[in-house]
Write a structure and sequence with these properties.
Chain lengths: 336, 336
């Protein structure tokens, strides 16, 4: 039975709401699925104290002590190298040593990305390990791959992103024959910058993905593709503009509602429906961003994560393990 | 007096709403400002017929016959070369020959971009002529430069974009000491892809612009900078995501309002305030996108332009001429 559990090491000290929301998310994950075991990594006494107020199966949450913390002010590379007893380093070593299948953190993105590569390491044959958040669309969500720290990608990287993203969406999220598209400035095959022009024919030649061609940025929110491939610079621009513009527009709607007595009443009447509609556009529901192509799964959640996002990130790891994604990555990327 | 007029040649056949909305926009511009003269370029008999229903100063709208039309299905390069009697080609020649100061079109973006370079030509010393739309922000608008057709830019191009954009925002839109920022994936100077890392120190060294550093995409809607510099691939992604996400979110708000009787009533109560708030986020108010660095001004408006956008685009040309922007571009780009 112990062997069938998906074991997740969780950085209990990372993020704006640590440790309380992280601990709460871990407890909720364990209570929701009996397939999960969590290693809560961080300051032992703090975590044991925090856990006291929750009810859960004691055999499936284990506190692992880590005395140091990496903050967003630390240089990621230096922090991972020198703070070897930080919650991120200790938790990643659990994955490296095979004690955990996956790692979840709301901590410093830089440290997670660097630590994952240095400690867990890439699958042999994987050139780059992309960070691939799920972005909300009108009808659901799409995997935006890559939004990581390595900009200036090569076409061979993008091809691997397309393959890994495709497997992930199919086997972790159950999307049949996921549609793969490359971000471009037009739909015609001859459009694009140097990187896209080089990559397009390579994607077209892949038998093992459902490549549907280019996607213009205006179609991204429109449920046009399931796996959206781009280099990390463009991915970061898309991801952050998504967040910024969504926030600005929703803020403007709210401000306009508050601006008069009449519109305030109107606001009360639409509140419930509006909330339901916009809930879809929130990333919390899907959990954090997986970092793919490593010897294990690493999931980075928002720094502002609450328990629900932590819980959903932990639960995502079950399919990853059960579907043997790492093995599929190896077969798919090496054989081609 | 004739000499002091700003003369604008207008592609009366381009865009989804041609010729009616284009003609109407031209008439409104002439009626609003006595500094404007318009050459309406297109099929003579159609335009004369359309003009009949409007009141305006007959001496300031002149129809110029052009028998051909370039459609969005035409290859831009071929169309500009072979359809020499198209409204775009004829109107651009008026600028080339100095009969008009500026050109406005809602027609094929590709044909306008190609035609502007081939027929009007770049100012000597300008390496690339960027297309720079105004994008709405929470408090106003910012110039996004470049969103044109030339991707794979070099750092020297981006430096020229920053200078031209700065002059344009200062002298055409009256923004004092416009803040210039470069699109990046983080705020630190060492962040970025190869292009951004090369360009950042060059911008920092420019004495004649107010360079404030990097801008992350999430801050773009937030009135963080007045001139936002990037290569055309990234610019196109930003511009189109702006349109797409705005449309999707506003659509979701509307759908949620329509989804029940109660929320419909609420919707009626907030309608006026909501409309006012979102009007800011509409591009119509500012007119079309200028293409800078040419021997004259070229303005590309949306294909779906109505009279108001055409009018505002034509009126933008007055400051461009009166402030002698072309001369300032020459001085600023050549001397450095």
């Amino acid at each position: 039975m112990e062997n069938e559990l998906t074991k997740v090491s969780v950085d209990a000290m990372g993020g704006d709401n640590a440790p309380l929301e992280i601990v709460k998310g871990a407890v909720e994950a364990v209570n929701e699925s009996d397939k999960i075991k969590v290693f809560l990594v961080g300051k032992e006494e703090v975590l044991n104290e925090t856990l006291k107020s929750f009810e859960y199966d004691k055999s499936r949450i284990e506190v692992v002590n880590a005395t140091e913390e990496i903050t967003c002010d630390d240089s990621p590379v230096a922090a991972v190298r020198t703070k070897t007893d930080s919650s991120i380093s200790v938790a990643l070593r659990l994955v490296k040593e095979g004690q955990a299948d996956a790692f979840v953190s709301a901590g410093s993105t830089g440290a997670v990305l660097v630590g994952a590569q240095l400690i867990v390491g890439k699958i042999k044959g994987v050139e780059r390990s992309p960070l691939a958040p799920l972005i909300p669309t009108r009808k659901g969500y799409a995997l935006l791959i890559d939004c990581g720290a390595n900009v200036d990608a090569r076409s061979s990287h993008l091809v691997q992103f397309a393959k890994m993203g495709s497997i992930y969406m199919r086997d972790v999220f159950g999307i049949k024959n996921p549609r793969v598209a490359i971000v471009n400035v037009g739909l015609e095959e001859e459009k694009g910058n140097k990187l896209v022009k080089e990559t397009y024919p390579l994607l077209k030649d892949c038998d093992d993905i459902n490549f549907i061609g280019s996607i213009e940025a205006r179609e991204i929110p429109n449920d046009f593709a399931d796996v959206i491939v781009c280099d990390a610079f463009v991915g970061n621009v898309i991801l952050k503009l998504y967040e910024g513009l969504g926030k600005t527009l929703i803020g403007m709607v709210k401000e306009s509602i508050k601006s008069s007595f009449i519109s305030k009443i109107g606001g009360l009447l639409i509140k419930k429906k509006l909330k339901m509609a916009l809930a879809n556009m929130s990333s919390d529901a899907y959990g954090g961003a997986p970092m793919l192509g490593l010897n294990g799964l690493v999931i980075k959640t928002h720094g502002s994560s609450k328990a629900i996002e932590v819980k959903n990130s932990i639960l995502q790891c079950i399919s990853f393990k059960e579907q043997n994604i790492t093995e599929k990555f190896k077969q798919n990327l090496v054989q081609n």
